[in-house]
Amino acid sequence: MRRRDFLKIGAAAGGGLLIGMHLPALARAEEASGLAAPFAPNAFVRVGTDDIITVIVNKSEMGQGVYTSLPMLVAEELEADWSKVRFEAAPVDPAYNHPVFGIQMTGGSTSTPSEWERFRKAGAAARIMLIAAAARQWNVDAQSLKAEKGFVVHVASNRRASFGSLAEAAATIEPPKDVPLKDPKDFKLIGKSTRRLDTPAKVDGSAQFGIDVKVPGMFTAVVARAPVFGGKVVSFNADQARRVPGVKDVVQVPSGVAVIANGFWPAKLGRDKLEIKWDHGANANLSSTAMRAEFSKLAQTPGLVAKKVGDPAKFLAGAAKTITAEFEVPYLAHATMEPLNCVVDLRADSCEIWTGTQFQTGDAAAAAAIAGLKSTQVKIHTTLLGGGFGRRANPANDFVAEAVHIAKAAKVPVKVVWTREDDMHGGYYRPMWYDRMVGGVDDKGNPVAWTHTIVGQSILAGTPFEQFLVKDGIDGTSVEGAADLLYGIPNVQVDLHTPKIGVPVLWWRSVGHSHNGFAVEAFFDELAHAGGKDPYELRRTLLANQPRMKGVLELVAQKANWGSRPPAGRGRGIATHFSFESYVAQVAEVSVSKAGDVRVHRVVCAVDCGRVINPDSVKAQMEGAIVFGLSAALKDAITFEGGRVQQRNFHDYQMLRMEESPEIEVHIVPSTESPTGVGEPGVPPVAPAVANAIFAATGKRVRRLPIGRVTV
Amino acid sequence: MINLKVNGKQVTADVDPGTPLLWVLRDALGLTGTKYGCGMAQCGACTVHLNGEAIRSCVKRVSDAAGKEITTIEGLSSDLSHPLQKAWIEIDVPQCGYCQSGQIMSAAVLLAEKAKPTDTDIDEAMSGNICRCGTYPRIRRAIHRAAELKANGRSAE
After folding, report:
1. A183–chain B Cβ distance below 8 A for any pair
2. Of the candidates A598, A58, A491, the residue with the CA atom closest to the CA atom of residue A71
3. Is the distance from CB of A62 to CB of A358 less than 8 angstroms?
4. H helices of A212-287, where?
5. B89-127: string of b/e by CB count within 10 Å (b at 16+)?
6. Considering only alpha carbons, which residue of chain A is nearest residue B44?
7. Strand order in the sheet with A159-162
8. How far apart are CA B148 and CA B145, in angstroms?
9. Which of A17, A62, A311, A581 has the greatest number of CB atoms lying within 10 Å of its CB?
10. Is the confidence at residue A612, as pLDDT, over 60?
11. pLDDT for A698-710, tens place per residue?
12. d(CA A495, CA A479)
């Protein structure tokens, strides 16, 4: 696929509603259901003659609640009976492309913001057509009818007809040209905490993730991949592997050698018996220590300027006091609980794929190219994702492409399963970053100048996104959360070095904000103290022109009792961050033991994400983001020695556990603004809030993640 | 052939006796509610009950499970009626949901042993189960809630 076909950034909002569009995939589903023809007014809604409303969701459910929030948008305008609403994963079709990114994908905390209008319109159009059908049947004016809880009602004659009973007639109605939406004050469902539609299947074992898929004649493949990124197979001996009972075949593919067996266990045993000679290639000497030294050296000189306001050099020189600090964060693995996997059934004229992906269009195109098929011959079934966090939105399509290669070579349907170790070693990490910050305050302690030099790999370089989002050598995701500093500091420079390193990198929940949030907010705290200011009060002062951020800051301070003395032995730290158009502030309450062990007792969070669809879901995302961010802040690092990743599994790449999980309180700022991102914005403030709390508790500054043990 | 008793039913599986129970459940018996997360008893996604005890099925040889009562998430209840399932739904615990079978199976043993578990009991019983989505605060609430539901159910009998 050519790049310009791949991505059309800034395309109009999806070309509207796709009224009247009947997808072949939906027609097949109708036949299979054995029901009379349902009413499918557009790509997103199907009204069954059994009164069941099926919302076809074009976003992947990876825990963020999108299989509930997008159906809520449809149900609100349709006036559906919520108990009759079901979800279904969309097939891959341009009708389901992201309205802004122009491909079918889930990411960037954009699912609700980008579909906010389209899904409501899909519901409203269906309602208008159902009402029109009833008007025709009863020979009354459509204006005299209303829809409520799954029925069309004629109040004057007390007649009622269920949506299902009108479905067939509605399918013959001309779709409306004008689809007005409700006044938000009339919302019945939007804004009310609503239980997730996918929960029941997730508590009885019936939820189907990619790894659970089984298709007729399927074998399981486990792959031996290069121990060093970019390594290649020179030769291999599979004699021992083939002798393992259950092993069917061993095939070489571009990524390594795949053992195919009648189940995971024999495939893994077979893989363990392979003897492979590798050419480790150019990355055989990768070392975190060496990279750190290189990054640190680069940080001492300014890079390409991403933002410049005023004259920072001059005002730093004239400042009453200046401070300098360097911050560093490591490579991070997404470590989704469900390791990567993909099922492929490849035939002469079709390629059917079952996987939990965030990146359908690209994956389908990659599969088509490998299979030698047209992309219309590739069918992707998006299963539930056992966590995504960005790892399953890979422009390199790694886990899908590899599975198609294996199916092609093995000539049987295969399920490729990555072991935890494979997943941990599989790359596409959050990049390692090194930040050097210099700040100056005047004689009253007010910040006058701020410079921030960022060093780290580009995520977008070499991807189809590069042409849109890398400008003048600056990857926008490298400087996000730094170049858009909200604080009113008069002289600011943010610059960037982008070293080229052979580690595959990718977006990781909150992307560039995941490191810039830490550096900016931890350094801000240092600068406040350098000027003798309370870090909360200084933030308030410098956010005078940022009412929404000031709003969450004040709310979190109030809820966390900022001015009061914390419980004995604890320190409080505060941080804010703006990302994915949402405003978040957090206060962490932390203690440090004599041995230096950090305990996060409580995190209070305030968020302004515009109008809220499902408040409980927003709270859940903030809670989850805080725990996710704490694992990174306290524990996680992917490091390299001799080109090899040093971590293997959850014993040496540790997650926060129940006993370490803090009490979390989330407060949502009521808002009538358009909805903004929710999945990611809760992550960036956690690490700096904790670092700042450690300073409050101990007087020690934390400038390197993971924090691990603090030297007290 | 290995004879197993899974969720009250006698089944046989034609597998190597050294195969971990997890893969027999998933690949041979089609019980995919039990999940693979780490393969080394670090994450708890594969938790099942063996004679009423929570075990990590990814490191349990299937031959060691023969002749014992194995319960998986599919066998916890047939109709979402277990107090933990009710509480999990009421509090909307799951996000991605992948770890939740294991979480619930660990919690079920806790609840069977302690009618009213404390936060410390929960920490002890649940810290072997990782949730990458960070649903711990809700799991904690849901276990307390399930204990209430269970107690109410008993007093109503």
Report:
1. no
2. A58
3. yes
4. 239-243, 264-272
5. bebbbbbbbbbbbbbbbbbbbbbeeeeebeeebbbebbb
6. A337
7. A145-148, A151-154, A159-162
8. 5
9. A62
10. yes
11. 999 999 999 999 9
12. 8
Residue A252 near residue A471, CB atoms below 8 Å: no
Cα–Cα dist A353/A416, whole Å: 11
Work out whether strand A378-382 and strand A350-355 pair parallel, antiparallel, or are unpaired: parallel
From CA A76, how far away is CA A675, in angstroms rounded?
A: 16
pLDDT at A37: 62
Average pLDDT over residues A561-566: 96
The model's pLDDT over A531-552, given as tens digits with 9 standing for 90+, comes to: 999 999 999 999 999 999 999 9
pLDDT digits (tens, 9 = 90+) for A286-305: 999 999 999 999 999 999 99
How confident is the model over A215-253, as pLDDT tens digits? 999 999 999 999 999 999 999 999 999 999 999 999 999
Report residue A20's pLDDT band, with 50, 70 and 90 as the boundaries.
very low
Which residue shows structure tokens 């042409």? A467
The pairing of beta strand B2-6 with beta strand B69-71: parallel
Distance of alpha carbon A496 from alpha carbon A687, whole angstroms: 22
Phi first, then psi, for residue A573 (nearest 5°) are -130, 150
3-state helix, strand, coil in chain A (%, to 5): 35, 25, 40
A706: preceding bond cis by omega (within 30 degrees): yes
Residues B124, A659: C-beta atoms closer than 8 Å: yes
Instruction: Supply the DSSP symbol for A464.
Output: T
CB contact under 8 A, B92 and A620: yes
CB atoms B23 and A63 under 8 Å: no
Rounded to the nearest angstrom, the minimum Cα separation between A197 and chain B is 10
Burial of A158 (C-beta count, 10 Å sphere; 0-12/13-18/19+): exposed
Q: Are A124 and A77 contacting, i.e. CB atoms less than 8 angstroms apart?
A: yes
Pair type for strands A275-279 and A232-237: antiparallel
Give the CA-trace dihedral at A104, A109, A115, A119, to 10 degrees.
100
How many angstroms separate the CA of residue A128 from the nearest CA in chain B?
33
- Measured CA to CA in angstroms, residue A465 lies from A360, A461, A469 at distances of 15, 8, 6
Nearest residue of B to residue A195 by CA position? Answer: B92
Chain B residue with Cα closest to A207: B33
d(CA A496, CA A454): 5
Interchain proximity B136–A661, CB inside 8 Å? yes
**Touching B: A residues 62-81, CB under 8 Å:** 62-65
Q: How far is A530 from chain B (nearest CA, A)?
A: 35
Cα(A435)–Cα(A670) distance, integer angstroms: 35
Length of chain A: 712
User: What does DSSP say about strands B69-71 and B47-50: parallel, antiparallel, or unpaired?
Assistant: antiparallel
Residue A36 confidence (pLDDT): 53
Residue corresponding to tokens 């971990």 = B20
> Is A496 a residue whose pLDDT tops 80?
yes
* SS3 assignment for chain B: CEEEEECCEEEEECCCCCCEHHHHHHHHCCCCCCCCCCCCCCCCCCEEEECCEEEEHHHCEHHHHCCCEEECHHHCCCCCCCHHHHHHHHHCCCCCCCCHHHHHHHHHHHHHHCCCCCHHHHHHHHCCCCCCCCCHHHHHHHHHHHHHHHHHHHHHC
Which residues 6+ apart lie within 8 Å of A697 measured at CB?
A: A569, A570, A571, A590, A591, A592
**The pLDDT value given to residue A196:** 98
| ipTM of the complex, rounded to two decimals | 0.98
Which of A206, A54, A617 is CA-nearest to residue B80?
Answer: A206
Determine how many CB atoms are found less than 10 A away from the CB of residue A711: 8
Question: What pLDDT shows up at residue A28?
Answer: 36
Task: Point out the residue among B38, B100, B133 whose CB comes nearest to the CB of A649.
Answer: B38
Reduced to 3 states (helix: H, G, I; strand: E, B; else coil), residue A555 is: helix
Whether pTM > 0.90 for this model: the answer is yes
Please state whether A209 falls in left (phi above 0), alpha (psi between -120 and 50) or beta: beta
